[in-house]
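Write out this protein's structure.
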Amino acid sequence: MPGEMETAKLLHDTSSQGVPKAAKRERSFELSLPALVKGLDATGRKFEERTSVCGISAEEVSLRLKARLMIDSRVTLFLDIPRTLILESPLRMVLSGAVVYVRLEEKADKTQLLVVRLDRGFRLHPNSAPPA
């Protein structure tokens, strides 16, 4: 009969077989970056709205918009990344994704808090480039 330590090791080893490793938690940053958002609103009309990003990770971005959007609405975001000590010149990052969360804010400006699940691809341009 195995000892207590061997039993614990055996239980640990067998319990992890066939079980995928837990997903690494995405690092999210709360920051305010100027953004231009384009897409189709809930009525199917094209919209273009300037806002600021509230938070961002490799998979999602949260922001507030006055335009009314629904779950699965597709949007394109143009983020203006300022010059820093590390980044010599400002950049414009172009991202796209689908809305996965919508909450109507109870503020006077009647904005919606949105979370957008980002597509894997993105583009970087000098910030002097006009939005596509």
